[in-house]
Design goal:
The protein is mainly alpha-helical and 231 residues long. Helix content is 81%, strand content 0%. It has one domain. The chain has helices at 13-50, 53-58, 60-88, 93-119, 126-157, 163-184, 193-215, 221-230. It is elongated, with a radius of gyration of 20 Å.
């Protein structure tokens, strides 16, 4: 029996499509929130990090805003997987559970990174606290990139979105993981040209995927037809 139908009982075709539409829209909004919040936080902090540490201490309001944006990213990241889970589990339940687990871990790490960022404007050793923030945020990116290796193969195999989006996301996730690995071993600098070159594909993909989810949604026509025949 297809795993799509092995979820404990018959479900109408209409309810599956409605569920997919709601999940798509919520996930699309959360993808935009997560990406926009991360970019905005980095834009806010970049000039402060280039200046003196006393400048960070004097810009507590900006640091607080960047902290809230990082926290929004953390919550949205976990929310994406939770929103998509009811649909993804019909195709690959183990993978769906793993994806939720990874993104919840990502969210927890993101909240920890935000806490360190909040402490940076008042800490005695600002350099140390910011270093801890950067380390934890690198872990966030590593967990995120591993999560893409679970999500996009399912999207591709089940044709839930156009193949170009799935393959683009998979390659982008691999490039981001490569960038994080190079940063981890001090081969490139975070925020440097190489890092930006390797990271940009997945961030653009996430926005493209978000727009697709909002306008077209996940294509569950295959499972809907099979459920209709089964009923």
């Amino acid at each position: 029996m297809n795993s799509a139908l092995a979820d404990g009982g018959p479900v109408s075709t209409g309810s599956i499509e409605i569920q997919a539409r709601m999940a798509s829209r919520l996930a699309g909004v959360l993808f935009i929130v997560a990406t926009a919040a991360t970019m905005a936080s980095q834009i806010i902090m970049a000039p402060l990090l280039d200046g003196s540490r006393s400048e960070i201490a004097s810009q507590g309001n900006l640091v607080a805003l960047a902290t809230l944006l990082e926290l929004a990213n953390a919550l949205a990241s976990a929310g994406i997987a939770i929103a998509l889970y009811p649909v993804l589990r019909r195709f690959a339940e183990t993978t769906a559970v793993g994806y939720v687990g990874l993104r919840v871990i990502e969210g927890a790490l993101g909240a920890t990174a935000a806490a360190f960022l909040a402490m940076s404007s008042t800490a005695d050793n600002t350099e140390l606290v910011l270093g801890l923030h950067d380390t934890v945020f690198l872990l966030v990116l590593i967990v995120f990139s591993v999560g893409t290796l679970l999500l996009y193969p399912v999207l591709f195999a089940q044709r839930l979105v156009p193949s170009v989006l799935s393959l683009w996301g998979l390659v982008g996730g691999l490039l981001l993981l490569l960038s994080c690995t190079l940063i981890l071993f001090d081969q490139i600098e975070i925020g440097g040209t190489t890092d930006m070159f390797l990271s940009l594909p997945i961030w653009i993909n996430e926005m493209a995927l978000a727009l697709w989810l909002l306008t077209r949604g996940l294509d569950v026509s295959g499972i809907a037809q099979e459920t209709g025949r089964a009923s």
